[in-house]
Amino acid sequence: MATLLVLCRFLHFVVVLLMFGAWVFRPWLLGTQRQPALDRQLLRITRGLAWVGLGSGLVWLLLITASMAGSWDAALQPATVQLVLGKTFFGQVWAWHLLLNLLLVIALIKPWPVLRMPLIALLLATLAPVGHGAMLDGLSGQLLILNQVVHLLCVGAWLGGLLVLVLILRHAQEHRLEPILRRFSGVGYGLVAGLLVTGLINVRVLTGQLWPTPLFSGFALILLIKVMLVLGMLALALLNRLRLDRCEQRLGSLKASVMVEWLLGVCAVAAVSLLGTLPPMVLAG
């Protein structure tokens, strides 16, 4: 059950993060001018992701219910699910999360473009209280959740932005790539700074240390893997930044680099999904 929960968390986080970042970066990189081919493709991808998000969100709820009740049979009982939704903090947050996901699916089917970005942003924000973000009470807990919201916004913008960049590179003949890449990398510096600062705050609050110990086991090891993956993404981003001149002439290597950077980001989200199920070893006193 634990393995299924990690896989479900991973799938759901990736879906929501990609949707948020893609819809944030689309106007930033290309402006408000319509790009029919790319916009149709992005909408089609987002619709698929929203359905996957709704399905994985429901499975996540059933897995948590089964874990709390101690059996799979109980997870399929409406009364048990209703109890989890109404009487637990996770359930109360998740009820709103699933409702937002359902509304997003409808907004993507109907011609309601004005609702799409707000719903995606709220969907991402309601992921923050799930996991370690709910460990603390009172003002400390609220500040930790706020910090986690900022962290997720930075991760989502970077990961989803890379998805949009991949789509742009597939239609490279229709765009001037150098200014687009400069805009992306310029914002990327701020996203990396926000990601690192909020990540360090999370570690400090949850473990009581600047870095958890022992270094090569449990929570600390997975966190180290996540950091190495993010550093790999940053190294590729810096390399591409240094090679912006005449980027159209090396389109093949640019596509490969962006795809590898995106895959490293997906792997980092996988590490985060596992971290959320591990004890962060909070120190006493």
TrEMBL record:
Domain spans labelled Copper resistance protein D: 180-275
Topology of the protein relative to the lipid bilayer: Multi-pass membrane protein
Keywords tagged on the record: Cell inner membrane, Cell membrane, Copper, Membrane, Transmembrane, Transmembrane helix
Any Pfam family: CopD
Entry keyword annotation includes Transmembrane: yes
InterPro entries with a match to the protein in the record: CopC/D, CopD, Cu-R_CopD_dom
GO biological process, one term: copper ion transport
Localization annotation: Cell inner membrane; Cell membrane
GO cellular component: plasma membrane
Transmembrane segments: 6-29, 49-69, 89-109, 116-136, 148-169, 181-203, 215-239, 260-282
Keyword Lyase recorded: no
Function summary: Involved in copper resistance.
Family membership noted in the UniProt record: Belongs to the CopD family.
Family annotation (NCBIfam families): copper_CopD
PANTHER family recorded: INNER MEMBRANE PROTEIN YEBZ (PTHR34820)
Protein name: Copper resistance protein D
Source organism of this protein record: Pseudomonas fluorescens
